[in-house]
Design a protein that fits this description.
Blueprint: E1 13-16, H1 22-31, E2 36-39, E3 55-56, H2 60-65, E4 69-72, H3 77-85, H4 90-93, E5 99-102, H5 108-119, E6 124-127, E7 130-131, H6 133-138, E8 142-147, H7 150-163, E9 164-171, H8 175-203, H9 208-217, H10 223-230, H11 236-240, H12 242-259, H13 265-278
Parallel strand pairs: 1-2, 1-4, 2-3, 4-5, 5-6, 8-9
Antiparallel strand pairs: 7-8
């Protein structure tokens, strides 16, 4: 894949959010030949991109002015709104006809609120949260869950496909966030199920590492069981993610309440049990 076909102007891409997830995504964009502009609050975040030819913008607004599409991979709802909507935010500089892809896992209402403001600038917004981690992004194997108008999704697709496979369009704006929240809700529930499984196996005298190998290939396996087995049942890594899992579980519950959808009792009990264990 390349940034442009012969005779065509390459799609200009901006990217904000160069953490453990966003940095490999941005590097894939650069490696595929798209003109890339970066902005970060901390200068050290852009240092690893000196070898890519990426341009570093002084403000989010100047990044917007240099970009046809912009990927946002910051942490929270407030961060997304800040980099897009502040006085020197992305939308202050972006030209009409551009598009923004929100990769952050945030409330669907935040996406819709930002989209309404972006529409005043004739800029489209899609939500495109991701799953798989930095290694998957580097290997062009990141799951990208997309919500938004088809034309805006197609405009962003060349950027999304530099790091995403599959890229799944789920429906209107907010659909990607709901799919990501369900995914994280189920994963959180699976952690407590996996802990129970390994504890039960230990009581039966089965070596947990051997059982982990079985579950990696068997129908009873899960991503949570694989992660726990690989760590030797060390919860340190998962505990470091506890605050994010807590945020996503409660975002999911809020979305369910707004829609009048009954909570999935068994999943909720397992997810809350996981959160309690990780916060010990």
């Amino acid at each position: 894949m390349s940034g442009a076909q012969p005779g065509e102007r390459a799609l200009r891409v901006g990217f904000i959010g160069l953490g453990s997830q966003g940095a490999p995504m941005a590097r894939r964009i650069a490696e595929d030949g798209f003109p890339l502009t970066l902005w970060a609050r901390r200068p050290q975040s852009v240092e690893p991109f000196r070898d890519t030819g990426a341009t570093v913008a002084a403000t989010p607004g100047s990044l917007g002015a240099s970009s046809d599409v912009v990927g946002i991979c910051v942490v929270s709802d407030a961060d997304v709104e800040d980099v897009l909507l502040r006085s020197d935010g992305v939308l202050s500089g972006m030209s009409a006809g551009g598009a923004v892809a929100i990769h952050s896992t945030i409330h669907p209402d935040t996406c819709r609120r930002v989209a309404a403001r972006a529409a005043e600038h004739d800029v489209a917004v899609i939500d495109a949260p991701v799953s798989g981690g930095g290694l998957a992004a580097a290997n062009r194997a990141l799951l990208v869950m997309v919500g938004g108008e088809p034309a805006a999704v197609e405009m962003c697709r060349p950027m999304l496909e530099t790091y995403g496979n599959p890229v799944i369009h789920l429906g209107p704006l907010g659909s990607g966030q709901m799919a990501k929240l369900i995914n994280n809700f189920v994963f959180t529930a699976q952690i407590s199920m996996a802990l129970d499984t390994f504890s039960f196996a230990d009581r039966l005298g089965i070596d947990p590492s051997a059982l982990g190998a079985v579950l990696a290939h068997g129908s009873g396996g899960s991503r949570a069981a694989t992660i726990l087995s690989a760590s030797g049942l060390d919860l340190t890594g998962l505990r470091s993610a506890a605050s994010l899992l807590h945020k996503d579980v409660h975002l999911m519950l809020d979305v369910a309440r707004q829609r009048g959808a009954a909570e999935p009792t068994m999943l909720l009990e397992a997810a809350l049990r996981t959160l309690a264990v990780l916060q010990q």
